[in-house]
Amino acid sequence: MEIIHIALGKVNPQRMNGVNKVVYNLATEQAKAGVPVQVWGISHSIVHDYPERNFKTVLFQKSKFPFFMPAQMKEAIRSTSNDVVFHLHGGFIPVFYSIARFLHAEGKKFIFTPHGSYNRIAWRKSGTSKAIYFRLFEQSMLQKAAIVHVLGKSESDGLNQLLKGIQIQRVPYGFELFGEHAAAINPASSNFLIGFCGRVDIYTKGLDVLLDAFALFLHEVPTAQLWIIGDGPERASLEQRADSLGIKEKITFWGSRFGAEKDGLLAQLNLFVHPSRNEGLPTAVLEAASMGIPCLISEATNLGDEIRQSKAGIVISDTNKTEMLEGLIASYRMYIHTAPQELQVRSRSMVESNFNWKKILSDFNSIYQRALSI
User: Fold this and answer.
1) I need a surface site. Which of 210, 254, 285, 302 has the fewest CB within 10 A?
2) According to the CATH classification, is domain 2-174+356-373 in 3.40.50.2000?
3) Which sign does the torsion angle of CA 31, 35, 41, 46 carry?
4) Would the pLDDT of 181 be above 60?
C-alpha cells in the first residue's frame, strides 16, 4: 500500500498555514515508519524551494481556472497501481472536485480531510455561497470518497448535519514532543506573558475577542503583556484595534517567525492563547503544550477534552469577551497558584498521551486499509 497526499501549495511547514503543517508532519512520520508516501502539490510555482524532506514531492502547475486539473496529474494518477490510496486535504477547493471525479472514474480510492471546513461556525462567513457550492460540488465529492476523515468533534457534528450516509472516521494527527528538557526553557516571569501564534485572521482566530478581553484583563494584572506571532492581511486592522483600545504599548506584533526563532519566542510565554471560532485541530496549541506551556483555548479548537482531562489549561465554551476575560483571569490564578514545573508536566503529558505518533499512524493505516477494501 502506498499513500499519496494531495494539497494546495508545496506543503512547506514554514508557512502560516495549518494544513501545510498537518500534511508535512503526517507524511514525515509515515516515511519514518517505512510507509511508502508521496505528497503531490498544486502550486503557482513548481520550483522545489523548500527545506529538505524525507518523502517524495511532486509539484503540478496551478491553473488560473479554479476547477482545472493539471493534465500531468491525470497521467500520473493513471500510472499508479491499485494499492495506492489518495488523500485529499482541504475543503471548498474547486480543483479537488475535479480530482475527485477523475479518481472515481479511474476506480482509484481516496479519502478526504476537510480540515475544519464544515463546522457550523465556518459556515457563518459566506453561508449562502458556501451552501450553493456545497450542493453543486462538495456534496458529490464527499459521496465519492471512500472515507471522510475529520480531526475533531465540531467537524463531524457539522458534517452529519450537512450530509447523511457517508463514511466518517475521526482521528487527530500526532505531534512529536520537543526535546526532553524543552519544558525547562519556559521560566516563570515577573510579568505575565501571554502569546498567540498563527495566521492573523481576526474573526476566525478570535483575535478581536482576545484584544477586547486583554484590555479589561490589564485592570486585573497591569504587568501583563501580549505577543502576537504571525502575519496576514488583517495585521494592520488588528494593530489599529489595539491602538483604539489604548493597549498598543502592551502588545508586541512580531510578524511571521519560523523555526528556532519562533520556538525561542514561544518558550518565554507563561500562557498560550488560541480562542478560535473555527478550527480543525490547531498545531500551534500542540507546539506550545509540547514545550510545557499551559493553554487557554476555545472549545472550537477540538482540544477541550484533552486540555481539561490533563489540567493543562483553561477551556472557554464560546469565543466572546466575557468568557475570554474569565479565561484569562482563571489562567492567571492557575499560574500563580501552581508550580511552573507542574504546569509543564501536565502540558507535555497531554500531548504525549493523546497525540502519540505510533498510535496515530496505526489509526491512519486502518483508515487507508479500509478505504482499499470498500
Assistant:
1) 254
2) yes
3) positive
4) no
